[in-house]
Design brief:
The chain is an alpha+beta fold. It is built from 12 helices and 15 strands.
Length: about 475
């Protein structure tokens, strides 16, 4: 195997078995080709690492509910296109730019006849507003032993369903439904017959992203306005404590006052030693029991009370969860604003870049990575104090060591890759006038959940949550 990642000319035992299976008729030829290619693809291969794209029909589908229309953003390879119907072109393995208008017209007819999009029960009319063809990298061609260039070349189109028209004068929409009818066979499946593909898609509405899966057995998805919001997805934070701790607590002043009265009584009765002993005994008793009576005896203020470890752990867990939930927002500005509700100072910009790089980066054309779940595990409160800031605001500050897990999903070429990462980090958290905020974060270790060893973080490198 050369470094260029092309398929080896020597068949392994697994590949030979695959060929024999075809010869005796156990599996279809397309199945054996996939087995043979996979067998000859080393684990260090650049193609094996990427895990996608894969051979066969594929589609990227992103549905957006906007103020005046429902927009379908679609990436579809030529294998999927030809499965939809007849699209004549000079070369079956490509679509020339001059052929795009006729392909768009035929596709628009297919969507009008087969794809049902409704708003509050009213059927909407499709219009293809944009269409184009990609220019793929020839180095990826070995990944498509069955479909070749038809699997690698993709059309990108936008199908618009206007909400406000003469036929559909909808100014506000409570429900949008999509009925998706296209499920070609999964060429990577070893089942006979091959089952229909499941379409991994994404739905955006009212500023939120939601991963969805469309299946031939359940081909419809319904979105309802006002059912969910970013606020509803965010974990609730306990309020900042406002009860101030006195500089001299009431029980201390009570002990002083009672001790002084008893000692003075002993002096007046000319039994100063007895009075002094009684004063010490009473004052000690008050100091031990610390009664809450006579709160007005307290003097001064030493800041607000520090919550117990359970409450501090709840605060830490909620803040960390909300860091990831902020990336459910559909717009970058909304994501940044939501993140600012959990992070402050110079860390805000850095954490936005780091989390986006690790979770939402477009790994390849059309790839999407989203957080499915955040599971916060063990939390150790290493220290916690309260003080008054230079501006005169009472502050509770703590350092928490947290272990957590993030489950994510990358959607690309119509299929998904689930992944889970475990992390451990140390966070500095404080109560500010605007609420609880993370002011510093250090990731101490990270690992894949598949049993890979803990990876120590290079102190000089940028940490990624």
């Amino acid at each position: 195997m050369k470094s260029s990642c092309w398929i080896s000319s020597r068949f392994s035992a697994t590949a030979l078995i695959a060929v024999l299976c075809v010869w005796v008729g156990i599996v279809p030829q397309s199945h054996a080709l996939h087995v043979a290619v996979a067998a000859e693809m080393p684990r260090e291969s650049c193609f094996f690492r990427s895990a996608h794209p894969q051979d066969g029909p594929h589609i990227d589908l992103h549905v957006r509910v906007e103020a005046d229309r429902v927009l379908l953003e679609i990436g579809i390879n030529l294998v999927f296109l030809d499965w939809l119907g007849e699209f004549p072109r000079e070369d079956a393995e490509r679509v020339d730019a001059s052929e795009l208008p006729s392909v768009a017209k035929r596709l628009e007819r297919v969507f009008a006849e087969r794809v049902r999009v409704t708003a509050d029960g009213v059927a909407l009319t499709p219009e293809i507003t944009e269409i184009g063809i990609n220019d793929p990298d020839e180095a990826l061609l070995p990944l498509f032993p069955v479909s070749g260039w038809r699997g690698l070349r993709k059309l990108k189109l936008e199908v618009s369903y206007e909400l406000v028209t003469t036929a559909h004068p909808l100014k506000t929409v409570d429900e949008v439904a999509l009925l998706w009818p296209f499920y070609p066979p999964d060429l990577l499946s070893l089942e006979v017959p091959q089952p229909p593909l499941e379409i991994a898609a994404e739905w955006s509405g009212e500023g939120l992203r939601t991963p969805i899966t469309l299946r031939s057995a359940s081909p419809e998805y319904r979105w309802r306005s006002g059912v969910s919001s970013l606020d509803a997805r965010m974990a609730r934070l306990p309020p900042i404590p406002t009860a101030a701790l006195p500089l001299i607590p009431s029980w201390c002043m009570l002990a002083i006052v009672v001790g002084a009265i008893v000692a003075l009584g002993g002096y007046v009765l000319k039994r100063p030693r007895v009075g002094a002993l009684a004063a010490i005994a009473l004052a000690s008793s008050i100091a031990i029991t610390r009664p809450a009576m006579f709160p007005r005896l307290a003097i001064g203020s030493a800041g607000i009370a520090v919550p117990d470890d359970a409450a501090l752990s709840e605060i830490s867990s909620a803040l960390l969860t909300n860091v990831y939930r902020a990336f459910d927002a559909d717009e970058e500005s909304a994501t940044y604003d939501a993140l600012a509700r959990s992070v402050s100072g110079p860390l805000l910009e850095k954490m936005y870049r780091d989390v986006r790089a690790s979770l939402v980066v477009e790994e390849e054309e059309g790839a999407m990575s989203r957080v499915l779940a955040v599971d916060v595990g063990a939390i150790v409160i290493e220290n916690a104090i309260s003080f008054t800031s230079q501006e005169g605001h009472p502050v509770v500050a703590m350092t928490a060591r947290i272990a957590w897990r993030v489950d994510g999903r990358v959607t690309h070429w119509g299929h998904t890759h689930d992944r889970s990462n475990a992390y451990e980090g140390r966070f500095e958290i404080a109560s500010l006038p605007e609420g609880w905020r993370i002011g510093k974060a250090d990731v101490l270790s990270q690992r894949r959940i598949d049993g890979a060893p803990v990876v120590p973080i290079d102190p000089g490198a940028d940490d990624e949550l």
